Amino acid sequence: MLSLKQRCIECGKDFDIRARLYVCPECGGLLEIEFEGDELRKNLKEHPLEGQINVWKYRAFMPVASDSKIVSLGEGGTPLVKCDRLANEIGLKNLYIKFEGANPTGSFKDRGMTVGVTKALEFGVKTVACASTGNTSASLAAYAARAKLKCLVLLPEGKVALGKLTQTLIFGAHVLAVRGNFDEALAAVRELCDKRGDIYLLNSINPFRPQGQKSIGFEIAEQLGWKVPDRVVVPMGNCANIWAIYKGFFEFDMAKVTKGIPKMTGIQAKGAMPIVNAIENGLDRFEPINNPETIATAIRIGNPVNGAKAIRAIRQSKGSAEWVSDKEIVASQKLIARLEGIGVEPASAASVAGLRKMIKLGQIKRDEVVVCVATGHMLKDPEEAIDVSEPPMEVPGTVESLETLK
Ligand SMILES: *Cc1c(COP(=O)(O)O)cnc(C)c1O
Ligand SMILES: [Zn+2]
Predict the structure, then answer these.
(1) Which mutation among 78, 99, 103, 108 tests ligand 1's pocket best, with the greatest number of atoms within 8 A of CB?
(2) Which of 233, 303, 334, 370 fits 265 for a cystine, CB–CB 3.0-4.6 Å?
């Protein structure tokens, strides 16, 4: 395990896996944990892919030093639901939804936090911290509680969906409401963690968190009978997830578990689409957006910390990026709910909305096997779900009033 390296994606320098780093100390670039092929094969002998599907089934691919410190709530193992009615409606033959709302705190963030909080214990800190649009804090607060760590959370004031705020509070985090948006809250907590060696930052800039999220790719491949789909569609906020899923398929290919990498397709909301702009204009760097706005609060991010990784994942997998309006997001949220019985939050619906748009534009073939990642549960944002629905009709409590109904 100790021959693993943290490698800067910009300058290529390697750093000891035991160093507590967030970015490259030389050039400020993002770090990635690199497994070599030999090492993976050795790990796979020690931890074969056996038993029930969950994040720790893929222990061979997880950069933790020993099993003794693992903090787990049974995350992962979420359903991959074949969606024939939805597929038919939008013009595809084979469509699946990977329902990440089925995780312990209702979003895919749990896959990252099981690894991230385990690393916090390895590093011996007593406090973990994050800035969050809501799901990161809900998940971190839960895993910190389980690990007996203090948890500090910065939320953009008045902008966090009710379900996410509720979770963060009940799990006992110290919650601060920042007068400003998410990007500003993140900048502040990053600076604090740089200054204070005793607080470990668990935002998605943290190189270990996405390692757990690779398991979305592993699970999709396994659930399709150890085959990779043609395309995986992912909503992009801070952009760790699209990279992590790409990396999962990449490592399965490297370890010869499965073959090939799906076209990674990233979706952003129209009011928060710096990566879509960069991909459309063929740029390697993106221009941050100052006042991001969208109903999909989980992807209301103008300056994605992992933007450079998202651009790489999309380019290297021959994928693409597309934007969607809030109206398209809400329409897809209802479609997923009413045709398939799957309740997702707006950010998750962006993946299906983007897929629909790309099919209409003729960019996706009818016979492609497509997986949309539904990143979070509908109950995360109950106010939005009520706002976009018809209110219940009021009737007297008599059988006569019911009999007149059609
Ligand atoms: C965090 C989150 C996203 C965005 O993921 P990134 O890794 O930041 O791109 C999308 N949807 C939901 C529900 C989320 O919680
Ligand atoms: Zn570097």
Answers:
(1) 108
(2) 233
